[in-house]
Records
---
Amino acid sequence: EVCREKTLPVIEKFLEQVGEDDLPPGRKAFVSFELFEHLHNPAAFLGHLKQLMMVGDLFIFTTLSGAGVDIQALWQDSKSVSPPHHLNFLNPVSIRKLLERLGLQVLEVTTPGKLDVDILVNNQAHIKDRFWRTFVASASEEAKQQWQNFIAASGWSSHMMVTCRKP
């Protein structure tokens, strides 16, 4: 709705149903939020998207990172690890390899997450690692925030955002 209010064209279709005639002329930014972990075949999805893209078009998306602190610490008890709903757990390294293999240029991969430590705090009973169990039980709110900032800045959050383009 916000995009429409700003007169930005919005196409609400499954990617496989989008054709070139659906797209506006000129440069485009394709976006996808919290979808990749649900895809049966991310490479096929990206291949279809690349066919729709013109040189210089952007693709910006968010997805889970399987290397994220909360997912790693909770693993089978993580609510994010929930097959058959979440099928793919890429990470900053593997998403770069996939995009580059498919001929897309990676501009940025970040993990700007803000909830990893909160997720651990809310799931303390399932944490098996001694360090994380002790940390979530006894760290100050300030220390938890510092760690969350570090987790996000260093690429270890379970929330990943990627920007790439068709070269």
---
Amino acid sequence: MGKLNYLVIHCTATPEGKEVTKDDIIRWHTNPKHQGGRGWRRQGYADMVYRDGSLVNILPFDQDDEVDAWEISNGAKGINGISRHVVYAGGVDKTGKKAKDTRTDEQKATLETYVKFMLLRHPHIQVLGHNQAPGANKACPSFDVPKWLKAIGIADKHIYKS
């Protein structure tokens, strides 16, 4: 628990075109391992962007600058207590084996609005991809977050540098 410092962008690592729901995420993360889950107490993301661009809240949070215990999700080990995590459905090719930026135009628009809203609400935070988080050894979110942030006009001070 601490001051909100980061917004971390993730992908679900599901094949291009596959529908994924909030309930899928909760089940994948919180079901016991013997039931195909990770056995976590909480899911890894606060919000999710569906393929059609709609945004759904997975883990409730308030809009203040403190990450309270009830707001912590398991998105990136080591920084969860000072981060908010958003995920988009997709992130791998149709075979499910290779990382690929599968964001639809609708997802890109929603993610842009989401990031800009978060920066207006929390002007001190930095935005990063899960693959930039300390200790992360993943392709997630399957696109170059700093490059995308620059392309949508985000100031350098809000772009995490690993």
---
Amino acid sequence: MRLSAILVVLMMLIFSPPARAASDEAKPYKELTGSPVLAEKDDGRIEVISFFWYGCGTCFRIDEAVSRWADKLPSDVRFIRKHVAFGPPVDVHARIFTTLKVMGRGHEDDLKVFNVFLAQRKPVNTLIDLPRLAEALSLDEKKLIETFNSKEVDQEMAKLDKLMAAYNIEAVPSLVIDGKYVFNVGDTNGPQGYLEQADRLIQQRRQERLAAAGNK
């Protein structure tokens, strides 16, 4: 087995959502303390961030369901995808995601990268692997590498580091509701429970925002 394949297997074992103990009566989410930390400037909408990893089989399996759910969210909710940064080599994978977004690429490219990582079992862990990724995505190799190494991507990665520190993401896939509530699919009863929990917390944040506005 190639080293890269071994790394992927190990990372999937480490970051798979943990099973909840039968005696665990804690809430199926974490409530973050302090002022909510958002990925983008507060525009009055409730922010929902979906954190994933290209090497996570569960992330890929529920992606379609999450996408359908996100497409039906009301107008007072904004949906954002982010790739986790858990340290090497996952930080490289996060930088690939960020690079594609800076290049203006859509979610269809994320699905292709999932295919490279999971179906082809050829994770892109180093700069040396980028030409292979460019070919898989039908992108200009030089442009991909230049963007990967750009200051703009550096800045976006610095923002991601701050989000990771604020949210303390422990597993993927995870959702962050308005910078206030964090949970992963292992905290809920499967993919359906995952999205139902998101709906409940979105409504909770909606009420909290209304209450806060009324007190001003």
---
Amino acid sequence: MSREEGFRDFFAQKKSSHKKITTINLQARPSGSIHQELSENLLDMNGGLKFKGLFVTNSRVYQVADFLEKTNKGPLRVVGYDLLDRSLAHLQNGNIDFLISQNPVAQGYHSFMALFDILVRKKTIEKRQYLPIDIVTRENIDYYLNHQNND
């Protein structure tokens, strides 16, 4: 929910009132029913796309990309989260434009180190810890994956 809030806040601050933002809540369910729900929500009466872009605020962006590939709809800008294998494949073939990686390895490391600092070193740590996010595209995916594996 906070990802969607941040997205909406960004456009509100830019005063982009001409941008229509619609929320579609896809719950975890079998792939076939998600495709049905996407058809009902993304396509207009003539089978054309209602939107120019989609921002999927969870790791299920690959399901949207599966739908777009199956229905051969486009062009549509698609942005999502997490570097799952299925999402990476869609990024490479152009069904997803951008994936936001929160670098879970770094998150785990920093969480562990914060716990270590509190329990062992008896240090006081900052309540809020900021970590960078990475925007992964077709053009930088090989570099990003190679860089991640070398860390």
